[in-house]
Amino acid sequence: MNNTEKKTIKYRNLLLGLIALLLLSLSAVAAVIAYVDPFFHYHRPLPGFPYIVDNQLSQNPGMASNMDYNGCIIGSSMTVNFDTDDFKELLGYDTVKLSYSGAYPKDDYNILSIVFDRDTNARKARDMGAVFFAMDIPTITAGTDETKYPLPGYLYDDNIFNDVSYVLNKDVLLQYIMRPLIQRKGSDLSEIYASWWTPDYYNIQWVMHTYEEPAKSDVTYTADDVLPATKANLEKNILPFVRDNPDVQFYFFFPPYSILYWHNLKQEGFYEAAFAQYQYVADALLEYDNVHLFYFQTMDEVTDLNNYADYSHYKPEINRFMVECFADDTYRVRSHEDMENKLQRMRQIVEGFDFETLFETDY
Fold first, then answer.
1. In the chain, is it the N or the C terminus that has fewer CB atoms within a 10 Å radius of its CB?
2. Which domains does the chain have, with CATH numbers?
3. Gap between the Cα atoms of 259 and 118, Å rounded
4. Nearest alpha-carbon partner for 52 in 70, 30, 36
């Protein structure tokens, strides 16, 4: 064997050794991520590991599949300040929070499809009891297949081959395994996704300082402009879960946005159209015996901007109050006429509010 052949064999063996080392390293990383499973894609949380839960798009599907619960919280940022301990205390449900900030109806559909997956529930012997669902009228005219953000599809399907995007993900390893191990501080699962605003931000000065008044629209929208899309989303993304699960109690609620939300609707030309949407959605939901519907927008708190951090996001104390209402039926809507009366009361609140003084005051 000449020197050239010897060098060739040496370099080949070196290359093979490097490839083997690389494969071994990748296998080790994949094994660690699969074992800890910070996105709960394969199993429930390991006892004692300080999991960080702050990624709704990536962690919600795993929690929906593998957490132990018999109630879930669905919806937009209007749900992030719920404390699941309140649902256990006041209603007896072990809930998991599955919020998507800015959720479109398709986002709600995607996660509810996992919640009500028959195979998963049979495997977990899960007996779903209740869904607590924030019904946001501003987003219900989105496209029926439109999501707020692009989804990491490999975490939402059953294709094990594309899991390589998860188990060989550098950010997952460093941010969701190494970081919590070093910091030894994980998330309180009862308060995950809570907004970053501290109590100091819930005041009229902050709200008005950050508020941007929409330009006055030259167009006035009508029921005909919004109800077809509203109906389509209800029929495709929401009502099938209600119909197919008659033994599950669905607590739908219209979140208590501040009075500025209604000013925005007037400015944008959607004021009358929104009232039509609220009535239409209420009527559609009230067709089902397993629906509990709540209209919180006539609360006294909506006219006091000290309860808000912006025009729509309310302080956590209001979240607690809403859970109390789910328990005792305060603000519950029971019929078409009941909803009509509540919307009429909402009109009175809006029409009687002194917006002129609000905008003229120097904050």
1. N
2. 37-360 (3.40.50.1110)
3. 42
4. 36
**Quick check: 80 pLDDT over 60?**
yes
d(CA 334, CA 282): 9
Query: What DSSP line would sit under 161-220, residue for residue?
Result: GGGHHHHT-HHHHIIIIIHHHHHT----TTSTT--S--GGG-SHHHHHHH--PPPPPS--
pTM of structure: 0.93
Using CB atoms within 10 Å of the CB of residue 207, give its burial: 0 to 12 exposed, 13 to 18 middle, 19+ buried: buried
Calpha distance 213→221 (Å, rounded)? 19
CB 108 within 8 Å of CB 74: yes
pLDDT for 28 equals 84
- Tell me how far apart the alpha carbons of residues 110 and 104 are, in angstroms, rounded to a whole number: 10
* Element counts in the chain: helices (H) and strands (E): 16, 6
The pair of structure tokens assigned to 131 is 């869904």
Task: Report the distance separating Cα 159 and Cα 56, nearest Å.
Answer: 20
Q: Whole-angstrom Cα distance, residue 318 to residue 208?
A: 20
**pLDDT band at residue 363 using 50, 70 and 90 as cut-offs:** confident
Q: Please say whether the dihedral angle defined by the alpha carbons of residues 348, 350, 352 and 353, taken in this order, is positive or negative.
A: positive
Name the DSSP letter for residue 99: E
Q: Tell which residue, 202, 196, 180, has the closest CA to residue 308.
A: 202
Question: What is the C-alpha separation between 274 and 230, in angstroms, rounded?
Answer: 11
